[in-house]
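Structure tokens please, single chain.
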Amino acid sequence: MWSNEFYYILPLYTILYQNILSMNILECLERFLTYLRLHKWRSMRTLEQYESHIWKFIVFLDPKTEMYPCKPFDHREAFLDTIAEKRIENREIRWSLKKHSPLQIEQIKKEDVDDFRLHLHKNWLSIKTTNAYMITLRSWFKFLKKEQFECLDPTVIDLMKSPDREVTFLTDDEIKEFFLSIDQTDIQWIRDFAICECIYSTWLRISELTALNRKDVNFETLEFAIRGKWNKLRTVYLTETASDAIQKYLELRADSFSPLFIRHNFSLENINSSLLQDDNVRLSRFFITNMVKDYGLKAGILKNIHAHSLRHSFATTLLTNGADIRIIQELLWHASITTTQVYTHVTNPKLKEAHKKFHNW
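Here you go.
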């Protein structure tokens, strides 16, 4: 038989249990970002995307949240902040938002997610982008379920059927015209040529390329290690052509900056001053993407190419020349073979030739 004390303790345990399961939606977002940062080692760019998606969902559910001047959490401060006053300020902002946004995580229903999906569609977001929002929400609720919060079952969030992915790649002739369009009489153009050769021969993602430092590359072994997507370490191999192009560029540099590729539109008087740091001269993803587009137009290529097109082009070349798709998957660092299979479209002409050769009765 239960003792009398149990009936006094039971309400207290009930309250504590309810507090554990019921939580403010902003607190849930903060915990999720902390989990991604500390346990999953997600990149800052990934954190920004996840936070942006969930924040827009919160504003959709509770429009008055948009009145506040900033986001509830700045994960960049968690990486970079060393000033106690700034941490206190962020904490005060978080508590203020939690107080003014009483929405609890267990209040969210499947209908809310469906309405948000429709809202995104009405704002002309593509199916791919809309699905990216749904994937973020699904990951968020999956984390909350694992933490034993009372929330929406993530398995009820379906993705929209999207058309087959198409990749833009350059033919052998277009690749030649592309590289011929890059003049090599100035350090900036020599740099651009080295960047394009590096992408084409190593299949680096743009974010991985911009993060490269001089010390990362071993020109003797023609390889280097990087931490790429999912924070996994992988080895990247250079061709001799790419290695020569990078070394030619580095020989023209008269600075001590760490980044492998830098901008050159700063004053030479400031090259060794404290006014310029590594982060000030490191190239951005947007610069490289636009640079590749510009050289594509200069070469007279009518395709809508981008930096990833060079990555696609070499993968396509290997597959056409008979490379095993599993090897290409490893080199491209694709988690799933399904992602790599998008390149098999280039084998269609060979299939047609084989069909015509052997099926002629």
